[in-house]
Amino acid sequence: MQTMRAMLLDAAHTLLNLADLPVPMPRAGQVLIKVSACGVCHTDLHIMDGELTEPKLPLVLGHQIVGTIFEAGPAAMRFQVGERVGVPWLGATDGTCRYCLRGQENLCDHPTFTGYHIDGGFAEYTLADERFCFSLPAAYSDVDAAPLLCAGLIGYRTYRMAGENVETLGIYGFGAAAHIITQVAKHAGKRVYAFTRPGDSDAQAFALRQGADWAGDSTQLPPEKLDAALIFAPVGPLVVSALQATHKGGVVVCGGIHMSAIPSFPYSLLWEERVIRSVANLTRQDGEEFLTLAPQVPVKTDVKVFPLEQAGQALEQLRQGQFTGAAVLDLNLK
Ligand SMILES: [Zn+2]
Ligand SMILES: [Zn+2]
What we know:
Blueprint: E1 3-9, E2 17-22, E3 30-39, H1 42-48, E4 59-60, E5 65-72, E6 84-87, E7 90-92, H2 98-101, E8 112-113, E9 125-129, E10 134-135, H3 142-145, H4 151-161, E11 168-172, H5 176-187, E12 191-196, H6 201-209, E13 214-217, E14 226-231, H7 237-245, E15 246-254, E16 275-278, H8 284-293, E17 303-306, H9 311-320, E18 326-330
Parallel strand pairs: 11-12, 11-14, 12-13, 14-15, 15-16, 17-18
Antiparallel strand pairs: 1-2, 1-4, 3-5, 3-9, 3-18, 5-6, 6-10, 7-8
Helix pairs in contact: 4-5, 4-8
The structure holds zinc ion (2 copies).
One zinc ion (ZN) is lined by residues 93-94, 97, 99-100, 108-110.
């Protein structure tokens, strides 16, 4: 039996272990992918920390997978062996629930999420349902493409939820999603105000390099009011800060899958038709749209690469905010 190296999570609140696992066999409709790069995401930390409570265990994390088709299972005919594909968080849906039937597959009642319900990309090989894979724009290297698959896709859905009528956009939490969406927003002619952890001058300088018009502490108010604010940091009190910074009718969009509790706040902050909303997952249409848009902007991803064996260090550095941009496991790095 052929084996592969994988970083395995045995249980919440434990560290990842390097393991030798059997290379899985593709079933009907699945493809076996040889992984070349996999992005690291805050959601991986929420799974490790037990904040997302229903992972398959033991589990291979990782839901921003770039690789090539190694083998197609029975009836899998969409891609050729050797073709490059991307695998996102949305691994499969039931296709039959009321949400799927209404074009809201991101809200599916019986979803399968990559690197959560099924093994993901912190491994040399992974399986995917071919219907949920994406072709990737040729302009990107494997490592540079990886952050497009969650930070990019879900960041883009978050950005779209802000609505059409946005001239001034605030972004709270300046990591992987923010650095991509700043470029998209500037390309669309918006003024972008970036908020970081108080005193994080590295992240603020990074935001300005990505094109933000202003960068400051999340405790500050921006130089002008915001039409919309996107929150990418999992910090509930930022919802209140963002409401304080928005115009009448402004929208505050929470882009993460988990957030600490939102403190109570006076109704006057919400009054005047301000809106708070969340974003859940992605649809394949989001993916197709964003992956078409990204090379047109063109979005440039800023990545810090780690070898597979250092997935744990990558996650810890992400937690501590020790690098700017996106962390990516490069499977070709030893
Ligand atoms: Zn993610
Ligand atoms: Zn469904």
